[in-house]
Amino acid sequence: MEMEKAYKRLEMEKDQVRATLEETEALVGQEQGKLQRFQVELSNAKTETERRLAEKDEEMENIRLVYCSAATVAS
Questions:
Q1: Which domain holds residue 69?
Q2: Whether pTM exceeds 0.70
Q3: What is the Cβ-side half-sphere exposure of residue 20, based on CA atoms within 13 angstroms?
């Protein structure tokens, strides 16, 4: 009788632990999804920033060339 009660109690505890594990695994999966989305957003932001920096570098080079041409003509 006591053995049966102990066995049933252990079975219930095992079921609770299993349910907790499943919930935890689901939460980990959700967090991994968030992390992947964040990494994509970060990568996109980095790409956009690098593109804008390249555009600014090109603008600065064009201004320098125009200035040098104007200085040469003025000489």
A1: 1-75
A2: no
A3: 6
Of 37, 39, 38, 35, nearest to 27 by C-alpha is 35
Token pair listed for 21: 């594990």
The CA distance from 61 to 67, in Å, is 10
Mean pLDDT throughout 17-27? 98
d(CA 71, CA 54): 25
pLDDT at site 2: 92
CA distance 1 to 56: 82
Question: Residue 71 pLDDT > 80, yes or no?
Answer: no
Can you tell me which residue has the tokens 């349910």?
A: 19
